[in-house]
Amino acid sequence: GPTVELRQRRKPKSSENKESAKEEKISDTPIPERAPKHVLFQRFAKIFIGCLAAVTSGMMYALYLSAYHERKFWFSNRQELEREITFQGDSAIYYSYYKDMLKAPSFERGVYELTHNNKTVSLKTINAVQQMSLYPELIASVLYQATGSNEIIEPVYFYIGIVFGLQGIYVTALFVTSWLMSGTWLAGMLTVAWFIINRVDTTRIEYSIPLRENWALPYFACQIAALTGYLKSNLNTYGERFCYLLMSASTYTFMMMWEYSHYLLFLQAISLFLLDSFSLEQSEKVHEVYKIYIFSLFLGYLLQFENSALLVSPLLSLVVALMLAKCLQLNVKKGTFIAKIMKVINFYLVCTLTVTLNIIMKMFVPHKENGHMLKFLEVKFGLNMTKNFTMNWLLCQESLQAPSQDFFLRLTQSSLLPFYVLVLIICFLSMMQVIFRRINGKSLKETITLEDGRIGGRPEIIYHVIHTILLGSLAMVIEGLKYLWTPYVCMLAAFGVCSPELWMTLFKWLRLRTVHPVLLALILSMAVPTIIGLSLWKEFFPRLMTELMELQEFYDPDTVELMTWIKRQAPVAAVFAGSPQLMGAIKLCTGWMVTSLPLYNDDDLLKRNENIYQIYSKRSAEDIYKILTSYKANYLIVEDAICNEVGTMRGCRVKDLLDIANGHVVCEEGDKLTYSKYGRFCHEVKINYSPYVNYFTRVYWNRSYFVYKINTVISFQS
């Protein structure tokens, strides 16, 4: 009517303009006709079978992990001490605190003792819950006692059972994500198959069960699945709300479970920012995700004992910058030259604001700067040189080096890498094609059909392409990050080969005329994954069954004897010194206090580790004695495996790194060689001659360990 015409002629305020645009959009949207009953039944059957397959895949994987763990360690036939020894390094520390919570008279008392812990590291009181992210252990201990499981199952089985169950959820979430992207649950089945076959490169659950990533990544996978559904253009209101709630809950839980989670969410936020820049339709949804980030960060800050690391995280700076940039945006007609200039200015503004805000936050918010991580990155990328023991030791860790050729060979043998590269190239090129069309102001259909052959126009695909490129770039530098990227590779490759849209996009470029492209795309989206699945079944299924049938045994009698001796002979108040990995096992198996821990997020603990490692250097007995007594140590444990280490990598043995740090060997040309008049301490102390016997008395030894009591009264008699 005339009122509508008058409203269009006037120039209303921005808020009125938005409201009228929404009204027009609602009125223009056609009311969908109700589908016939047989179509509804087909949809229901498809969803039911897909959900059943997803849940079954997760349950089967969890059962497989449990059976494999039993076969590998012969767990049920072990004594409690032998079971605990299977937890190595930092895993032993996490499980020890779970035991402490179960021993506490009440939950409140247990939490208090962990937050004011002075019974783990000598001369140091730590908030173990905050510093080590012990929320999984708190939850597991509450569930164990609240469900009455203490009368049914042993604590260790309950603990590892939860972790295996979470891994089942992890696989189910990857299944659902691939299903949502491709439209067929066949993609989910292929994702799970590739994930399990390549599990050496997709997860560390087999080697270290209590790792924080094993608790956290299942929630991140759920968040990605919810985000994938949320970004879809054809999602109804109820589905959108469900995805939003699931995304909110999983984002916050993920942040609570892992101290490095906000860095991973920062990469995700960058991906969403680029999506927002390229895809104009999903801008409001992307900004709703930013609100979830802010809510999770501040709630995490409050519930993690005012964790300042979250306030100075790059994630918060980026999200705040994006919010400010949105407020400063002007309403400019899309496709014009001014709109293109504004996009560039907006991108520059966000980058500048992010860096500026992060610097300001670090200036005004008291926080512990991870200086060792920044130094490590400088040395890693060749920006600096160092002789520092800790830096060089970190550089020598296999997980922090570039991926080996074996990694790519394994992915290629399972056919995963070739299909991933193919899918990524097609999606990326299609995405760039859509972006250039939008930059040039060409109008594109809002609803993408199979005949369009435009897979790069879907917002969720753009997001996943950007995210996998970012994760892959990092994985190419640091091998440990492959456990974040390889599951993504499984999911993206499976989605691609099962998606008719991807094949249709390829056929559009090839201008296929001989066969109807839509029909061929549908055939290939079923035939290719079926052929891949059959070939994987034939080649890898017998291997998986062989692994389950093969009885292995974890045999470490020397460590069992050492722990038994400590529990029987050492005083309760004794403090032990030795390598951080061994100290973690001593804390778990005996409960005795130690001088250091295998944790690398605390500068003081890193310095302690370096000082205690001096027992394998060419230092005098007096120097070692002063170091150990400064930490109130009563016993010293020398490991023969470290003292007589024959490393595969030259210069990466502990004693080599110590010699470089102490200047006892020439590292680079021009360096000064400092000659040490002392032999290597770990060798000399075994010989039992003065002055070593004056400071240290051997009280126990076996093939692997030598235990020395640190004398309080020193005798210098020859």
TrEMBL record:
Localization terms from the record: Membrane
- How does the record say this protein sits in the membrane? Multi-pass membrane protein
What are this entry's molecular-function GO terms?
mannosyltransferase activity
- CDD domains named among the record's database cross-references: Dpy19L4
For this protein, the parts annotated as crossing the membrane are 47-68, 156-173, 179-197, 242-258, 311-332, 344-365, 417-436, 461-478, 484-506, 518-537
InterPro entries, alphabetized: Dpy-19/Dpy-19-like, Dpy19L4
Note the superkingdom of the native organism: Eukaryota
| Region annotated Disordered, chain positions | 1-29
Q: Which UniProt keywords apply?
A: Glycosyltransferase, Membrane, Transferase, Transmembrane, Transmembrane helix
The record's section on Pfam families has:
Dpy19
User: Is Cell cycle one of the keywords UniProt gives this record?
Assistant: no
Annotated GO CC locations: nuclear inner membrane
The family annotation for this protein states: Belongs to the dpy-19 family.
Q: Which PANTHER family match?
A: C-MANNOSYLTRANSFERASE DPY19L4-RELATED, DPY-19-LIKE 1, LIKE (H. SAPIENS)
Q: What is this protein called?
A: D19L4 mannosyltransferase
Originating organism? Crocuta crocuta
